[in-house]
Fold this sequence. Notes:
This protein is mainly beta. Helices cover 12% and strands 43% of the residues. A hairpin with a 2-residue loop joins strand 13 (195-197) and strand 14 (200-208).
Amino acid sequence: MTVNGLKARMSANIIKRWIIFFILTLGALRSDAQNIDFDLLQGQPSVKIPFELKHNFIVINVRLNGILPLHFIFDTGAQYTLLFKREYADILRIPYVRRIPILGADLSQQLYAWVAQNITVDIPGRLRVRNDILIFEEDYFKLDELTGIFIDGILGGDAFKHYVIQIDYRKQIMTLTRPSAFELPKGNYRSIPLAIKDAKPLLPASVVLENNIRVPVTLLMDTGSGIPLLIYASTHPDLSIPEKTIVGQLGKGLGGYLEGYMGRIKVLELPQELTFNNVVTSFQKLDTIGHAVNLSYNRNGILGNQVLRRFNVIVDYPDSTLYLKPGRNYKQKFKYDRSGLIIFAIGHDLKEFYVNTVIPGSPADEAGFEEGDLIRKIRGLPVSLFDLSSINRMLMKRQGKKIKMVIERDGVRMDKTFRLRDLF
């Protein structure tokens, strides 16, 4: 197998942002099919939608055109519904309206997608969304490999922008309520004003970096992002990248590499005295075109599920208000990989694993791991007994913990041992 695709866990979120930026500039899809006169709830005051929280993504089981069962990520950071795998559209014989070009991440290579109109997506709770969708000519995301779970597309926020959405991460239930039936929540909820732009919720916050300067920022509330926080370092003079980071080409997709950084910020402050310390944070520099697109949204970064899942979340789209209630895990420390291994899942059941990236100077690098190594055993057990999430959790454990693996390289098996430690 050729090792290519995404280069780090944060890559899917960054690459997704690039795709959606250029989709919006093209104006490829129509949003008028889902308007305020269309009653998505079909007379019901509210509907409960079960989901699975996997790899910090909200995954909903849907049916495309009422037939094909698929797995979509619910993504408040995306406006439209996206299908990653064209073969599914071909199975259903979905007609395409037109083929459109999309610029790759290097802003030079042209890639392509197809627009399909009036496609239905059935959601648990007897909900049926009908809208235009974008179908990628190839699966540029490869989220299956990245997450170890089957992901077929994105369910964007445009279909729900006339309703109130409550997300209970602990019970894994999303509740969709019509505004006339919504009652202000009781208990320890904090209200935060939102700006809604293109069905995307933006909220005010502040960050404190290593220079101890408090910087006001605007963040996209992004349930389609599995990371805690992403900061566009070049959007404010005081948003500098910390010295202690993992640096390198952290993403390859859509025709080019994306340079990224991973580190921590001292403090993340949300309104109503909701504060987090030592937050694991991704940093990205934007070039001129990225700046222009990002400035049109007036935002400095992304707030992802690793922060949002610490709350019971209510997004009142019509009233442009976010309600947050701290949960049991509100004060948990933010963890990140301590091995230096970026592992991807492959195979028909995603139960085979290979090393996609080895971070230079990390414990895995010092132990002699190389890109493309196949993992055969972990702690003496066959890898078939694990999934990608359990492997990643193991690599986040305490400093000093010994990890033993058996890998295969060019048909030769080798024993590898290293101890976990902080990388930043």
